[in-house]
Structures are given as structure tokens and as C-alpha cells.
Amino acid sequence: MRCGRFGRRAAVSVALAAMAVMCVFNFVLTPYFECILDGDSCDEHVSFMAGVYARSVSVTCLVAVAVAWLEHRGAVATYLERKELHDAYKTPATADAVDGRPRYVGHATFGAAVFYTSMALIVPINAFRLYRFVSDDRPVAVIVYFSLMYSQNLYACLYETHFVRLFYALYTRFADLNSEMEAIGEWIVDGRVAREEPPTGRHGAGWIPCDGDDDGRPSHLYCSAATGQPLVDAVERLRFRHRLIREAVDALKPAFALPIGLSLCNLCVMALFDVYYHLKNSVDQPAGDLATMYIFLWLGQYTFRFFVVTMTVDATVKQAS
Description:
This is Putative gustatory receptor 28b. The chain is mainly α. The protein contains 7 helices and 4 strands, in the order H-H-H-H-H-E-E-E-E-H-H. The strands form 2 sheets. It has a two-stranded antiparallel sheet. Strands 3-4 form a two-stranded antiparallel ribbon. Mean pLDDT is 81; it is low at 93-101 and 189-205.
């Protein structure tokens, strides 16, 4: 077991080191590659702006690699600890939704949908463009340059997908907690039961008087019909679970805040440059079907990635507040 774990860590470390080397290589040699793309007229025609696109990708990927190397293992370990502790505190009276299943069972499906959609938007178009470079007998340096840049962009996308998958699991738990709190809150006003009849929670958790006498007694004297748990204990348990999920959110910040922020900025940079070069080339000659396909697929990729990250974070923050 230890050998297998050590082997996985070693493989991950080697992969991260290789990706870091690729980022540095592309960042340093971007002017050289841009010279080749510009017809070998290096010093006169290649400006600083010509390499902003590739260097933006390299910096974003390098920061993600460095943060993953330093922070990811500890951050995710704390995240999993808090999440598993939260799940352990779920009681039979509040664990099931209306259909008898936890609300967060769909997070694996959500993660898979995001992953496969991202791969469908990135891999085919990039592979096709590299194929065109080869078939058009472009210089090997150009093929290497774009291969490394596409690999770095793919790594940044995978890091975003990993973040979204982890964060969505917290979103569903916040939504579950809020639904349970709302179900209890509907029956309590100023610490007393709001109706004369013994309330039944919308998750199948009926609350009955602990001593069997329903004579308008304070809410803390009510117990779960399913487990016998006092209502006040159920509320405290919900508060504790809410705190655990907030701590899980905080645990992810060191490993994802900076890389994801840079990645969102990089998506905007790539979109601006792709639109600029598409319009610039269209002035020189009418854009063909291939160029139009490129620009729409690239913009679709950037839009999808930006939307998924921002909406997942926004929805989670709203549920947490």
C-alpha cells in the first residue's frame, strides 16, 4: 500500500515537474517562436504584444503547477476531512430528500459532464490544428510551440474542472442544509411550534412532543418521531454541519484561489487575442470556413469554462450566505 502510494506521488511529482519545464521553455522562447511565425523577421517586426497570448497561458499553467505542488495535497486532505465529518453528522431524520436519496449524489455526474464537455471543446480542435501544421509542412519548432501551449491550456482546464467538481460537492451540501433548515424553520416562530398539530418535516422527519403531550409547549421539548432526537439538538447539528462545510470551502482557497483567478483572466486574454487575430486576418483576406470554425470553437471553449467556474462559485456562495 505504501509503495503504491509513494509511486503515485512520484508519478504526480514527475508530471508536475515536466509541465513546469514546458511552461518555462515556452515562456522564455516565445519571441523566437513568434519570429518563425512572422517569417524569420525577428527584431524588426515582432513586438512584445505578439507573445502575450502564449506567455499568458504559460504563466497561468506555471502558477497552477506551483500551487498544486505546494498546497494541493494539504488543502484537499483538510477539505475531505471536513466533508466526511459533515456527512457523518447527518442523521436518519434529515439525511434523505423527498425521493429517498441524498441531494448530492449527482455531483459525480456533474463533474463528468463538465469534464467531457471541456475535453470535447479542447482536444479535437487542437489536435486537428496540429494535424494541419504537419500536413502543411510547417517548421518543427512551430509544431512544438503550439503543442506545448495546447498542453498547458489543457492542464489549466483540468485544474478548473477539478476545482469545480470539489466545489459543486459543497454546493449540494449547502443546498441540502438550507432545505432542512427551512423545513424546521417553517414550524418554529420565536422558539415555539407554529401550529397546533405536530409538524411533519418535508424530509419525512416528524416532530412530536417528547412526553407525548402536544399542548403548545416550547420547541426544545419536541423530538424527532424517527430517532427521538430533540429538536434543539437537530438545530445545533445543522449549525455544526454548516460550519464544517464553510471550513471545507476555506480549505480549498490556498490551492485554488490564485490559479483559478489567473485562469479566468487568461480565458479573457485568449478570447480577446483570438477575436483580434480573426478580424485582422479577415481584413487581409475573407475568412474561410476553417477559420470560422476555429474562432467559434475556441470562443465556445472559453465561454463554457468561464461560465462553469463562475456560476459554480456564485451558486455555492449564495447557498452559504
